[in-house]
Amino acid sequence: MTDPYNSSGSRRVIASLDDSMVTTALELPGYRITRNVGLVRGITVRSRSIVGNLLGGLQTLFGGNITIYTELCEQARHETYRDMLKHARQLGANAIVAVRYDATDLMAGLTEVLCYGTAVVVEPHDA
């Protein structure tokens, strides 16, 4: 088990925000929330290209996973997640809880993807 105190005897706060410090849960196992920094988000608006629509349409004729749309969705989610992490780091957070994704069609072929959560500062639970 790691020591929750640094060499000077004061509480050690986790300094970095990486994927292991992001959760859809309301708490982060092994850590105590010491400060709520606030809502953080990443947002992107994506459109499908004419070529993408054509290829996607062809794939629908054969059924199964429409890979061109799957890749587009995954790229949008990755981008919004990355932007949410950047926003949290700018606010001084070292963790994000209650992470969610949302998507809204703005118009035909134009979709907004949003990733959001609550940025917090956490420290390890006492031994």
Automatic annotation (TrEMBL):
<dbReference type="Pfam" id="PF01906">
    <property type="entry name" value="YbjQ_1"/>
</dbReference>
<dbReference type="InterPro" id="IPR035439">
    <property type="entry name" value="UPF0145_dom_sf"/>
</dbReference>
<comment type="similarity">
    <text>Belongs to the UPF0145 family.</text>
</comment>
<protein>
    <recommendedName>
        <fullName>UPF0145 protein CSC65_14560</fullName>
    </recommendedName>
</protein>
<dbReference type="InterPro" id="IPR002765">
    <property type="entry name" value="UPF0145_YbjQ-like"/>
</dbReference>
